[in-house]
Design brief:
With 459 residues, the chain is an alpha+beta fold. The protein has a single domain (67-417), classed as NADH Oxidase, CATH 3.40.109.10. Helices cover 41% and strands 12% of the residues. The protein contains 16 helices and 8 strands. It has helices at 3-6, 20-50, 64-67, 78-84, 123-142, 186-189, 209-220, 234-252, 254-261, 268-274, 287-295, 301-317, 334-353, 363-373, 379-388, 432-438, and strands at 96-100, 104-109, 145-151, 170-179, 225-230, 322-328, 357-360, 394-402. α4 (78-84) crosses α5 (123-142) and α8 runs antiparallel to α12. The longest helix has 31 residues, at 20-50. The termini are far apart. The chain binds flavin mononucleotide. Flavin mononucleotide binds next to α5 and β7.
């Protein structure tokens, strides 16, 4: 009897009826193959564990999605911050800081959390801040606080110094509260269920007419913006073409793509360390492909860029029954960008409550900003203007909507501990112009005249 059979394991059972030297050779082969198989399986299991195949949405970076409701109504304004940080933000940069007082809350832009050449005028940073504001307004109602929103007006300008050298955080908006009846909106209830969905949508299932009307009704609540919805036809085809062209332009621009890639968090360790940025889990891949992408070695950048262009064209646009464009009078006006964010967050929450999936697809507007920064003619701006058909309006956020085929998962969030500044909110937004002056950004001309409260008299 050979040593091999002495230590026989169940998977090395001789085949029935096997005997003699031939059977011995087969046994040895099977034992070795079994060992190799086990090693490979163990290695794969370890790699799967190590790359986070089994830990989607788990760990401290995802806790804010579980604990956002805080300790109930007694928690007051901090509960607003917990809801605010669950909002959408460009590249999951979470560009927010907060000052919290008993009857007011300041929202500040964190100057370091900026996409540089991908968002040269910080327009998308401000749209993101507006998204957080919307969640906070909804959470205020749930806390029995009636919020009044003030926006810091002024033009968004390119940082004077080279990216990312900017100084102090800037107050961009302020919420003042007065006690009121508790108002728990249906939108508040879905704050933790809203996630950007980048997977294929059900190509054959259109968005119902009633939902389109409801989208338009939501948009009409804010006269500062306009919503354009496109299902099919030449304007939709033009939108798809421009979006693919813009994606190609981003990957061909080394500064843009580098600024974008810097925010991607590809391993569980990076996610735990940064608690921000897009992750592989948020790519919208079906489960097997997701596991494979996580476990395989990181592909060459050129390959991932080609895959992004292909996914944009062949998956995201090809399966989207509806695309939309949020247009405003002046995308580079700070309060306008904030308002667009409030609306976008509200629209997503509303869609979430209806079982719809959504994804911003804003490459065209990002490249238009880049063209503006580099002072070059913008073919994309001309193309988008043609789609909008009214030169009083300019796009600030484009998106797609439809019914999901793959459930979207939460993306990481930083906890509020590191985001709430120690000092109390200023007594008025007026102080913000001093902060703006110190921050290294071009002071907007309007700021010289003092701070105006939106829809109110200049002070
Ligand atoms: C102003 C803005 C622009 C965005 N642009 C894009 C985009 O072009 N493509 C995309 O896939 N997601 C885009 N997003 C979605 C963010 O990447 C997403 O909100 C972020 O990763 C956090 O994930 P969550 O929305 O699932 O919480 C954008 C979000 C905002 C607020």
């Amino acid at each position: 009897m050979t040593q091999e059979t002495d230590n026989q394991e169940p998977w090395q059972e001789p085949w029935p009826g096997a005997a003699g030297p031939e059977a011995d050779t087969r046994r040895i082969f099977l034992k070795r193959a079994g060992g190799v198989f086990l090693l490979a399986a163990g290695g794969l299991a370890w790699r799967a564990y190590d790359t986070g195949v089994f830990s989607v949405g788990q760990g401290a970076a995802y806790e804010p999605w579980q604990t956002w409701r805080g300790e109930g109504p007694s928690e007051g304004p901090l509960a607003l911050v917990r809801a605010g940080v669950l909002a959408a933000s460009v590249h999951n940069t979470q560009p927010w800081l907060f000052r919290v007082g008993p009857d007011s809350l300041e929202l500040l832009a964190d100057p370091g959390r900026h996409l540089g050449p991908m968002d040269p005028f910080r327009r998308e940073q401000h749209v993101s801040l507006g998204c957080a504001l919307e969640n906070m307004v909804l959470a205020a109602g749930a806390q029995g606080l009636k919020p009044e929103v003030e926006f810091l007006p002024g033009k968004l300008a390119e940082p004077r110094a080279e990216f990312p050298t900017v100084a102090a955080p800037e107050v961009v908006a302020r919420l003042r509260f007065t006690p009121s009846r508790r108002d728990i909106s249906g939108l508040y209830a879905v704050i933790s269920r809203r996630h950007t969905n980048r997977g294929p949508f059900m190509a054959g299932r259109g968005v119902p007419r009633g939902t389109l009307w409801a989208f338009n009704d939501l948009a009409r609540e804010d006269q500062s913006l306009r919503l354009v919805l496109l299902e099919d036809g030449p304007r939709r085809a033009a939108f798809d073409r421009l979006t693919v062209a813009a994606t190609e332009a981003v990957v061909a621009d080394p500064e843009m793509i580098q600024a974008s890639n810097a925010w991607f968090r590809l391993t569980p360790r990076e996610i735990e360390e940064h608690r921000d940025g897009p992750t592989i889990d948020s790519f919208g891949l079906p489960p097997l492909s997701l596991a494979a992408v996580k476990m395989l070695p990181k592909p060459e950048p050129e390959k991932t860029h080609r895959q992004w262009v292909a996914a944009t064209r062949d998956v995201q646009l090809a399966t989207a029954p509806l695309v939309g464009i949020i247009a405003v009078r002046d995308p580079y006006e700070r309060a306008t960008a904030l308002r667009a964010g409030l609306f976008w967050q509200r629209l997503q929450l509303w869609a979430t409550a209806q079982g719809l999936a959504m994804q911003p697809m804003n490459q065209v507007v990002q490249v238009i900003d880049r063209d503006r920064q580099l002072r070059r003619d913008s073919v994309l701006a001309a193309g988008l203007a043609e789609i909008l058909g009214d030169d009083r309006w300019q796009a600030t956020l484009a998106f797609r909507a439809g019914y999901p085929t793959v459930a979207a998962v939460p993306s990481p969030r930083r906890g509020i501990e590191s985001l709430v500044l120690k000092d109390a909110p200023a007594s008025s937004l007026r102080q913000a112009d001093q902060i703006a002056e110190q921050s290294g950004f071009e002071p907007a001309p309007e700021l010289g005249a003092g701070i105006a409260i939106e829809d109110g008299p200049a002070r």
